[in-house]
Every structure is written in structure tokens, then in C-alpha cells.
Amino acid sequence: MTAPGGAGARGESSPVRPVAAIVLGALAVSWMILTVLDLRENDGAGPIIAMFGIPALAAAVIIQIVMMRMGERKRVPKAVLWWVLAVLPLGTLAGFVVAILRDPDYFIADEGPWMLIWVPIFIVVGLLLGALVWFLFAVPAAHSRLRPSSSR
After folding, report:
1. Under 8 Å CB-to-CB from 76, ≥6 apart: which residues?
2. d(CA 120, CA 111)
3. CA of 59: how far to CAs of 62, 87, 107, 141, 151, in Å?
4. Angstrom distance (rounded) from CA 142 to CA 57
5. What's the distance, Cα to Cα, between the start and end of the chain in Å?
6. How far apart are CA 61 and CA 83, in angstroms?
7. Which of 49, 89, 93, 128 could disulfide-pair with 53, CB 3.0 to 4.6 Å?
8. Per-residue pLDDT tens for 37-61?
9. CB within 8 A of 110, min separation 6: which ones?
């Protein structure tokens, strides 16, 4: 039986709502970068951040929230997987479609349209980098909490 806040009998709560909020927030920031800002500014850092940085950061935060909220349950709800593996990459890709339509010369240039195949690949790599970011920051932080402090 679940309580109105989503907490179960053992105090566990579903991670679906926070994951949805993180994904929607990440997509809002990504779309803002791709549709409002000038893509050529700062040597094209905006599209790179929208492709790698935002999905990686969102994935790292989502992994941490899921790990904290799952408790002893071993299965991640399918809605969480749907938000992370479908909505986040496809929403980011849709933002890139808008950016490509807005400034096609920036993305296509001399190499031709076949270079656009790299955009979805880089978005997926950004999601995978999120797991690495989570591992490199969360695991050492957990280890430092578990280690007894020695004062001399």
C-alpha cells in the first residue's frame, strides 16, 4: 500500500516524478541553448553542451536519485527507463532538428548532410558519460562518508 506522497510501507518512494522533472528541466535548458542562443558563439560550445553536458549531468543526477529512492527493491520502474532512454534523447534530438533548421550552414557546412548522423550518436554517448560522471563523483563521496575520520 502506498501513501499519498508515493512512499511505500518501508518508506521507499517512487523515483518516477523526480526523474520526469529532471528530464523536463534538462530538455528545457537544452532547447533554450539550441533555439535561443547563437550557436556560433564561444566556438560552438552551446551545441556541444546540449549534446554531451546536459544529458550527462541529467543522467548522473537521475542515477543518484534512483539509487537513493529504490531501497532494497531491485527493479527500476519502466517509467523511469522510458523517461531516461526515450524522452531525454529524443527530446534533445528534436531540439537539434530545430537548431539545424534555424542555422543549416553551421551543422552541414562543407562536409555534407551525412555528418548529421553523429548527433544522435553523441547524445547517446552523453547519456553514457552520465554514468561515468555519477561513478566518479558519487562513489568517492560515499566512501568518504563511510571512512572514520582520524584526528591527530
Report:
1. 15, 66, 70
2. 17
3. 5, 12, 26, 18, 37
4. 18
5. 50
6. 13
7. 49
8. 888 888 788 889 999 999 999 999 9
9. none
Per-residue pLDDT, 42: 83
Dihedral class, residue 126 (left if φ above 0, else alpha if ψ from -120 to 50, else beta): alpha
Which grid cell is 97? 532538428
**DSSP tag of 76:** P
pLDDT at residue 79 tops 70: yes
Cell numbers linked to 129: 558519460
Which residue type, as a one-letter code, is found at position 115? Answer: M
Note the pLDDT tens digit of each residue in 96-105: 999 988 888 8
- 9 band by pLDDT with thresholds 50, 70 and 90: very low
